[in-house]
Amino acid sequence: MNDKIKIVNQYKKKIEILKRHNKLYFINDNPEISDSAYDIIKKEALELEKRFPYLKKLDSLDSIVGAPPSNKFKKIKHLRPMLSLSNAFNKNDMGDFLKKISNFLNLKKNDIELFSEPKIDGISATLIYENGLLKKGLSRGDGTTGEDILENLKTISKIPKEIKTKNVPNLLEIRCEIYIGKKDFIKIKDKFANPRNAAGGSLRQKSSKETSKIPLKYFAYGFGAVEPMIFKTQSEFLMRINKWGFEINSLAKTIDGIDEIEDQHLKIDQLRSSLDYDIDGIVYKVNNLTLQKRLGSTSNSPRWATAYKFSAEKAITKIKDIVIQVGRTGAITPVAKVDPVTVGGVVVSNATLHNEDEIQRKDIRVGDVIKIQRAGDVIPQVVSVDRDKRGKNTKKFVFPIKCLCGAETKKEISKSTQKQDAVRRCVKGYDCKFTAKEKLKHIVSKEAFNIDGLGKKVIEQFWDLGLIKEPSNIFELDYNKIKKLEGWGELSINNLKKAIQKSQLITLDRFIFSIGIRHIGQENAKILAGFFGSIKSFIKLFNLKNRKQLLISLADLDGIGETQIESINNFFFNKTNIQIIKKLINKLNIASYVVKNTNGKFSNKKIMFTGGFQNMSRSEAKSIAENNGGKVLGSISKNLDFLVVGESKPIKKKIDQAKELNIRVILEKEWNEILNS
Question: Catalytic one among 42, 119, 285, 526?
Answer without folding.
Answer: 119
